[in-house]
Amino acid sequence: MLETVIENRSSLFWKVLVAAVVVSIAGLVALLYFTQETPESSPPLAAVIRSDDPDFERYSSQLAFEDRGIRMLKNFTGSRMVLFAGAVTNHSDHTLDVVEVRLILFNAHEPVFESFRTPIRPGPYTPALLSGATRGFTLYLEDFPKNWWASRAEMEISGIRFAGADSETG
């Protein structure tokens, strides 16, 4: 008859196995982190109608912007971060492929910091916003002035682009 021999593994084997799994996971996380496209590394978008453009009011009135809340959180390192949640509904007859948002932090009534983010932009993970559709988004800020009192924060649409409106980056 055949007997199954169960080999006892030493504690060193299990320690090496656990260490190899941890190193593999850390390597995968590092690879994903460094290959992600950040707003700073993304190429600038062309043909975006921004708030200083005379046509901005006419086109932005065809969008419904919903502020779904702004919260102060702490990240894994214990540092403060601000989480902005919102949604955009496209009531125009055209497809939107870019929505730019301005994030503003205030001390009392005085703005102390602003940042521009693009939650809807051409890419593999963000399809264009079709006519009549709504898209939710979440943005966060980790780098902001330490002297901000965390008393007030706002967000607003600061730029839009319709699909096909010279979607080349430049």
Q: What's the quick description here?
A:
This protein is α+β, with helices and mostly antiparallel strands and 170 residues long. The chain has helices at residues 11-35, 56-60, and strands spanning 49-50, 63-74, 80-90, 96-107, 110-120, 134-141, 152-162.
What do these coordinates show?
This protein has 170 residues and is α+β, with helices and mostly antiparallel strands. It has a domain at 49-162: Immunoglobulin-like (Sandwich). It is built from two helices and seven strands. It has helices at 11-35, 56-60, and strands at residues 49-50, 63-74, 80-90, 96-107, 110-120, 134-141, 152-162. The strands form two sheets. The protein has a four-stranded antiparallel β-sheet. The N and C termini lie far apart (75 Å).
Rg result: 23 Å
* Portion of residues within helices: 10-25%
**What is the global morphology?**
elongated
**What percent strand?**
35-45%
Spans of at least 5 consecutive residues whose pLDDT stays below 50 are: none
CATH class of the domain at 49-162: Mainly Beta
